[in-house]
Amino acid sequence: MNPMTAPDRDPRDVFEHTDTAIGREAAAWWARLRADDFTQADADALRAWCARSPDHARAWRELQQVWQALDPALTRAAAPQGANVLVFPARPGRRAFLGGALAAGVAVLALRPPLGAWPSLQEFAADYRTGTGEQRQVVLSQQMTMQMNTQTRINVRAPESIELLGGEAEILASGARQPVSVLAGAGRLLAQSARFNVRYTDDAVCVTCLAGAVEVAWQQRRQTLDAGQQLVYDERGVQAATAAPVEEASAWRTGALSFVGKPLADVVDEINRYRPGRVVLRNAELGRRLVRMRFSIGQTDGALAMIRDLYGAQMTSLPGGIVLFS
């Protein structure tokens, strides 16, 4: 069994066999990847650093896997008293986890993952969550069912009332005597008999009514969406309802993503929701290019090859599933 995933593995052992100085260097490389001026020369240097020795390659691999290895401990640490501090249970006879600057660095990485490469610590506080590429159905009651898309976090406030903290879900309200309630960002969605998709990304909420009717409440404003209508709101206001691209809004339920006349930057953002690692678009002009693409959610690496071949992008692959387009 892989020791990184063994259930009885002490999370403090993740770097047990990795030199601390090399571990600090690996953490520094993660930080460097976040810089706006990360260059092709940096990419070459990172690859060379990983190839320097088995210990270097292992440190980089373990840094990618540290979230999974620390999953049980970080779940416990997500309690309110540990909101900003990682606390690990003492274990006699074991050396301290990493120690010094490296331990602090891992704590920072857990709270603010570079490039969004793994879930942040706060995500573990949600009642329900899905990982990258994961989808999940949850039946909350006879009147309310939710289908969660990738990278989604939801808290249950009552049997028929939820808060969408981030991500995307399709909600089915089945003849509830009292409206089911979905709190998302600055608004609340109410429905008695409806099927609707709600997406909360980039600080904006997009609501698409697929069947029935959904009431959108934003401050003192209330607006009803009928089947085939969509609107977007954020903290600043509510846009007017428009005809919804229903097939596009629910395409993720079919396992495929389709883009017609969308900027490449939007396509890359969507790929990052479904693919482990991170795709970074470093060419603003390329990002503005309008593209036409369709691909399976399970074939995102094939989509990257399409971007390279069809749109003339230079693609640089780095360890850890990181891909740079320039």
Low-confidence stretches: 1-18, 67-112
Output the helix-strand order.
Answer: HHHHHEEEEEEEEEEEEHEHEHEHEE
Radius of gyration: 22 Å
Report the principal-axis shape.
Answer: elongated
Give, in spatial order, the strands making up the sheet with the most strands: 5-6-7-9-8
Total number of beta strands: 17
The proportion of residues forming helix, as a percent range, comes to 25-40%
Query: On the 0-100 scale, what is the average pLDDT?
Result: 77
Keyphrases for this structure?
single chain, 5-stranded mixed β-barrel, disordered N terminus, 3-stranded mixed beta sheet, elongated, alpha+beta, 326 residues, 17 strands
Write a concise synopsis of the structure shown.
With 326 residues, the protein is an alpha+beta fold. It contains 9 helices and 17 strands.
Structure commentary:
With 326 residues, the protein is α+β, with helices and mostly antiparallel strands. The protein is 28% helix and 32% strand. It has a 5-stranded mixed beta barrel. The longest helix is centred in the N-terminal third of the chain and has 16 residues, at 54-69. It is elongated.
Please render the helix and strand layout as text.
Blueprint lengths: L19 H14 L6 H11 L3 H16 L1 H7 L22 H12 L16 E2 L6 E4 L4 E5 L4 E6 L2 E13 L6 E5 L2 E5 L2 E8 L2 E15 L2 E6 L2 E5 L8 E2 L2 H4 L6 E8 H11 L3 E4 L2 H4 L2 E7 L3 H12 L3 E4 L3 E4 L1
Parallel strand pairs: 5-6, 14-17
Antiparallel strand pairs: 1-4, 2-3, 3-5, 4-5, 5-8, 6-7, 7-9, 8-9, 9-10, 9-11, 11-12, 13-15, 16-17
Helix pairs in contact: 1-3, 1-5
